[in-house]
Amino acid sequence: MRVTELTLCASLLLTLGPLVLGELEPAPVQEETDRPCSSCEARQHLRTLRLNAIKTQILSKLRMKEAPNISRDTVRALLPRAPPLQQLMDQYDVLRDDNHEPGLHEDDEHATTETIMFMATEPDPLVQVDGRPQCCLFSFGQRLQSSRVVRAQLWVHLRSSPEPTTVFLQISRLAPGHDGSRHIRIRSLKMDLKPGSSSWQSIDVKQVLSVWLRQPETNWGIEVRALDSRGRDLAVTGPAPGDEGLQPFLEVKMAEGPKRLLRDTGLDCDENSPESRCCRYPLTVDFEDFGWDWIIAPKRYKANYCSGECEYMHLQKYPHTHLVNKANPRGTAGPCCTPTKMSPINMLYFNREEQIIYGKIPSMVVDRCGCL
Predict the structure, then answer these.
(1) pLDDT digits (tens, 9 = 90+) for 184-220
(2) Which helix (H) or strand (E) holds 356?
(3) Alpha-carbon distance 248 to 158, whole Å?
(4) For the residues 101-124, what does the mean pLDDT come to?
(5) For the chain, how are helix, strand and coil distributed in percent, rounded to 5?
(6) 211 near 222, Cβ under 8 Å?
(7) 10 Å Cβ neighbour count for 295?
(8) pLDDT in tens, 23-47
(9) Which of 94, 134, 314, 371 is the most buried if burial means most Cβ atoms within 10 Å?
(10) Residue 112's Cα: distance from chain center in Å?
């Protein structure tokens, strides 16, 4: 392998790292007969570069200067208060390896947070009557106030009933004032429940959330009640024994960034392949190896990387690159094997405020490799 080519491509990778999540690498050439796998050494070097770049790029795309200081013990303490994670992971398809749309490439190189789950806290005593309600106040940051809300769903867990019953799920907006004006009914939902089964129910609260975002001073919280035919409240609203992790939460979906079509083809190889041309190789990223306990899911994902030769004979698909290199033969070390198609991953993670965030992180998986 020519050392100068490796240095130039590696330097280009580190320079463009925040913009493109793949390595731009050299054309490995087997130069010595006593080193039958010099390309293997080059690929190992590129694997290390790729892993280091991924750590930097995830933080950059999440607009973090450093990883949140959330230890494994802290995560264990937070998860019992979190929404039902398996339901969230199933809903957002977080654990699927191919969770991107074929042929699509993210234009926006910063993470477009799609959904945030807000945990309920206790409202101010000014809006409570005889110690009620103990739920629910949701606090929102500046980022949500500047985003376009697509959907807002309040999720409430209902306890089981020993007999079939009709339940009226009632949402009332809280405000300070006299007893008769503190609870203002804003939404209600009628549902029939089968006996012996608890369930999660959702209700649209986009309208009231829009008011809160426009007028934050009106956000004193809401009261949630689910009264059955006998007047019993089946809604789980407090951390009673056996109700851990079942408190109401607010799921807010925000607008996504644009996408564009990008079609490409390329070679796929494994680590033992004798292929010398530019090729995509497997690489699995394990966030536990990074010590990143703040990432809930996925704990690992298939990132892949590119490696191989880029001779001019392989550049029929890239005539513009061939012409540039031919016009300036002394000013370039030749084309580099680099990702030509990438896709995002879905991620659930804790931010610094210990909120659970669902985000789509763009350009995290190498789908195709080519010579550029």
Answers:
(1) 788 888 988 888 888 899 899 998 898 888 888 989 9
(2) strand 356-371
(3) 10
(4) 65
(5) 25, 30, 45
(6) no
(7) 20
(8) 333 334 334 344 445 567 778 888 8
(9) 371
(10) 8
Q: Give the total residue count for the chain.
A: 372
Task: Report how far residue 3's alpha carbon sits from residue 126's, in angstroms, rounded to the nearest whole number.
Answer: 71
Q: How far apart are CA 160 and CA 46, in angstroms?
A: 55
Residue type, 273: S
Residue carrying the six token digits 């703040």:
294
pLDDT band for position 290 (50/70/90)?
A: very high
Whether 97 has a pLDDT exceeding 50, the answer reads: no
pLDDT tens digits, 45-61: 888 899 999 999 999 99
Place of tokens 């491509």: 9
Q: What is the pTM of this model?
A: 0.54
Burial class, 143, CB count within 10 angstroms (exposed 0-12 / middle 13-18 / buried 19+):
exposed
In this structure, the number of other CB atoms found within 10 A of the CB of residue 286 comes to: 12
Tokens of 11: 């330097």
CA distance 123 to 246: 18
Task: Give me the DSSP letters along 164-212.
Answer: -EEEEEEEEEE-SSSGGGSEEEEEEEEEEE-TT--EEEEEE-HHHHHHH
166/232 Cα distance (integer angstroms): 11
- Beta-carbon contacts of residue 240 (< 8 Å; ≥ 6 apart): none
User: Which H or E run includes 286?
Assistant: strand 284-286
Do you find a cis peptide bond into 298, omega within 30 degrees of 0?
yes
